[in-house]
Design goal:
Elements (H helix, E strand, L loop, with lengths): L4 H7 L9 H11 L4 E4 L6 H15 L1 E3 L6 E4 L3 H14 L7 E4 L6 H9 L3 E4 L1 H9 L10 E5 L1 H6 L3 H9 L6 E6 L4 H10 L4 E4 L10 E7 L5 H9 L7 E4 L3 H13 L4 E4 L5 H13 L4 E4 L1 H4 L9 E4 L6 H8 L9 E7 L4 H12 L37 E4 L10 H8 L32 E4 L3
Parallel strand pairs: 1-7, 1-8, 3-5, 3-6, 4-5, 6-7, 9-14, 10-12, 10-13, 11-12, 13-14
Antiparallel strand pairs: 2-16, 8-15
């Protein structure tokens, strides 16, 4: 695929042999300098799809002197940020690229110390990133790549204003990449204000469910759900399970009930401190506990190999969320099972919307003592029709209308023309123009990176 030899060398011990569809289709466009909107199910290799070409660029364009942030990866959660940081470190093992992990909920001192040593790649959540910028401890004026990962969740969590403030601090001449498992209209609208003439790469139907996940429905009254959950978790085939609730309070309540019934589990949600979340995740990964109860936001970034079952203890009212949930199992080609406990109330309507979204019927499992004898939920009832099969692995590539960004279409050509120019901040060249104008940020004491030439 044209990746730098040192990048390919780092992939050997990781067992990477053949690129996944999203990697195969996105990496060439990123290498060519295009803005990209990538859509693929969770667990299909989106992180490598944007990280590998970026690390390749750094390998070919190393700087000497104090490193400044040249790549910014924005993610919605601490767990996802940590996962991406680990991957980027592995990919850049044989080049002199430094990474820094920036997120809230912990003291900023260690993070500031990392920044002072020099950083090439920043992986950050929006809140803490803005805090450090506002304190004058971090400048984004040399950023060459912006990546928004799980952009839909960013908007769901209310980060839209933070994202716009971050964008205003970046140079206009940059390459921007969006990667997400779903692409709702709100994300499309945001992309039109940030991306320049992007290429849309889609390797699965938007919001399609993974073929490796065996999906099943269970009809049960709300009051009997906890007893049914205990029965399901005690089945011999359930090795490790991720249980989803809608609220933080609900997650804690489920964990207490499981413990009363002899099942060890931990909850992970926004009210837990970072050390508590780390302890729960480590216990789950090591097998000390086999059940992790999570809210949707906290679950983003949970990448645990071998999760055998996902259990929707409560059905999400946003259909796309269901796809994200069940994508925690059946990863990397392995099989998985997803149970959805549907009550007698509004959850039937939510499940009907999910069936319509994924365009398939979900089998109903009746062989449990709490089964509710209610009408089946079928795709035909949702007014949907099964789409013609496209072969599963087909992808789509097309240019996206950049809408209000039309006035900046020349930026792509300018960026490619200037790709080999000396780094900004050297040789008396002008510093990049910020989209939001001067915002009163402190100027770094150093003049900027100096070009070192090819690392090879």
């Amino acid at each position: 695929m044209g990746l730098h030899p040192r990048v390919l060398e780092a992939l050997v011990p990781l067992g990477y042999e053949t690129p996944t569809p999203i990697q195969e289709q996105a990496i060439p466009h990123v290498l060519q300098g295009h803005d990209v909107m990538g859509i693929a199910q969770t667990g299909t290799g989106k992180t490598a799809a944007f990280s590998l070409p970026i690390v390749h660029h750094l390998a070919d364009n190393m700087m000497h002197g104090k490193a400044v942030p040249r790549v910014l990866v924005l993610t919605p959660t601490r767990e996802l940020a940590a996962q991406i940081d680990d991957n980027v470190k592995a990919y850049s093992k044989h080049i002199k690229a430094r990474t820094a992990l920036i997120f809230g909920g912990v003291s900023q001192h260690k993070q500031v110390a990392q920044l002072r040593k020099g950083v090439d790649i920043l992986v950050a959540t929006p809140g803490r990133l803005l805090d450090l910028c506002n304190q004058g401890l971090l400048s984004l004026e040399w950023i060459e790549f912006l990546v928004l990962d799980e952009a839909d969740t960013m908007l769901d969590m209310g980060f839209i204003h933070d994202i716009r403030r971050v964008i205003a601090m970046l140079p206009e001449q940059r390459q921007s990449l969006f990667f997400s498992a779903t692409m709702p209209e709100s994300i499309v609208k945001l992309s039109k204000t940030i991306l320049t003439d992007p290429i849309r790469v889609e390797v699965a139907r938007v919001s399609s469910a993974a073929e490796t996940v065996d999906q099943r429905m269970l009809f049960v009254s709300q009051g009997a759900k906890r007893d049914l959950l205990v029965e399901v978790l005690n089945r011999p085939e359930v090795e490790t399970s991720l249980v989803f609730t809608r609220t933080k309070y609900g997650a804690d309540k489920v964990v207490r009930y499981l413990k009363k019934n002899g099942i060890r589990g931990e909850a992970i949600h926004g009210n837990k401190s970072q050390p508590q979340r780390d302890r729960a995740m480590n216990a789950f990964r090591s097998g000390k506990i086999k059940v992790l109860v999570a809210t949707d936001i906290a679950a983003r970034g949970i990448d645990v190999k071998g999760v055998s079952h996902v259990i929707n203890f409560e059905i999400p009212n946003i259909s796309e969320t269901y796809v994200h949930r069940i994508g925690r199992t059946g990863r990397a080609g392995q099989d998985g099972v997803a149970y959805s406990m549907v009550n007698e109330g509004d959850e039937r309507k939510h499940m009907l919307n999910i069936v319509k979204l994924i365009q398939r019927d979900i089998p109903l499992e009746e062989g449990h003592q709490w089964h509710l004898d209610l009408p089946a939920i079928k795709l035909a009832d949702a007014g949907g029709q099964r789409p013609a099969k496209s072969g599963g692995g087909h992808h789509q590539q097309k240019r996206e209308d950049s809408g209000p960004g039309n006035r900046n279409r020349n930026r792509t050509r300018n960026r490619n023309k200037n790709r080999n120019r000396p780094p900004l901040g050297t040789g008396g060249q002008e510093r990049p123009t910020h989209g939001g104008g001067s915002r009163g940020k402190k100027k770094p004491k150093f003049r900027g990176p100096k070009h070192q030439g090819n690392a090879s």
